[in-house]
Design a protein that fits this description.
Blueprint (H helix, E strand, L loop, with lengths): L1 E6 L3 E8 L2 E9 L8 H11 L10 E6 L5 H14 L5 E6 H10 L4 E6 L3 E6 L12 H4 L5 H13 L5 H11 L4 H9 L4 H6 L2 H6 L4 H17 L12 E4 L1 H5 L1 H10 L4 E5 L3 H9 L1
Parallel strand pairs: 1-4, 4-5, 6-8, 8-9
Antiparallel strand pairs: 1-2, 2-3, 6-7
């Protein structure tokens, strides 16, 4: 059996292949080796993944956020070996590599992630190449769900929201206390998930100019800080994976066209594209 995984900060999609066909699929929580050790990851897999594997697992192809070097990849590999000790091959690579393989297939293009976090890379059809490096939630993640939610909360705390939107916001979330936001930002785990949870409010109120302009501005920052710096961005398609890219597709394309960029695929999740990649 072969396992293919795409892991973001919020969730991990798994596909189990047997004789080149999808035998089963499931979803677990998201993993990040910057915040979790091998034991905690393995414990989750033993409960929610292992029972679905009816045969011996021989290969695992894992793509995930936080897999930025060999040390972080090692945490993922160690966790997988704790659950599947006879596995013969384990690849643990960055989620952006998975996005490139899923969205570009065997064709050259720029691959972008816009989900809870954001990332991008150039893919030549075989391997990843030039990259404007991401800087994580606190220093980057422009255009992501975390960035959208953070921008929304900042507009609330700075009293920049129009009264009508502020009223809707407080009806949904209650009066937001500055200290509560700071606690979630600096003292509780996964601040990106916390802030990303507020991005849904923007989607639900996208007909309002304030909300749509805020989203457009976040996307503009993503393009200007990352995509426009790719030497080949005008010569090839810019492809996207992730829930934010998928749900805000129309606005995303609008901003891309403003910069004369060609948008290729926009996938909600890379997992099905990864299955096809490994079937070929």
């Amino acid at each position: 059996m072969i396992l293919i995984a795409d892991s973001g900060s919020t969730k991990t999609d798994w596909r189990i292949l047997d004789q080149n066909e999808v035998f089963a699929q499931t979803q677990t929580v998201g993993f990040n080796p910057y915040y979790q050790d091998a034991n905690s990851i393995a414990n989750e897999l033993k409960v929610n993944l292992l029972p679905l594997c009816k045969k011996e697992v021989t290969q695992v192809f894992y793509y995930g956020t936080g897999v930025t070097n060999e040390e972080k990849a090692g945490i993922i590999k160690e966790a997988i070996l704790k659950v599947f000790p006879t596995c013969q091959q384990i690849e643990a690579q960055s989620d952006v590599v998975g996005a490139a393989r899923a969205a570009c297939g065997k064709t050259a293009g720029v691959a972008c992630i816009l989900g809870t976090g954001s990332n991008s890379i150039y893919f030549d059809g075989e391997k990843t190449g030039f990259q404007v490096p991401p800087l994580g939630f606190w220093l980057g993640d422009e255009g992501s769900g975390g960035h959208l939610g953070k921008s929304l909360l900042l507009s609330y705390l700075h009293k920049e929201m129009p009264l009508e939107i502020r009223t809707k916001f407080e009806e949904q979330y209650g009066t937001m206390d500055r200290l509560t936001v700071l606690e979630n930002a600096y003292h509780k785990p996964f601040p990106n998930r916390y802030f990303a949870s507020f991005s849904r409010f923007l989607f639900d109120n996208l007909e309002d100019d304030f909300c749509s302009n805020l989203v457009e501005n976040c996307f503009l920052q993503f393009f200007e800080k990352y995509i426009l710096k790719y030497p080949m961005c005008y010569e090839t398609n810019v492809n996207f994976v992730g829930s934010v890219a998928f749900h805000y597709k129309d606005l995303l394309i609008k901003v891309a066209q403003r910069h004369k960029l060609k948008v290729g695929k926009v996938l909600k999740s890379p997992i099905d594209g990864l299955v096809e990649y490994f079937r070929e």
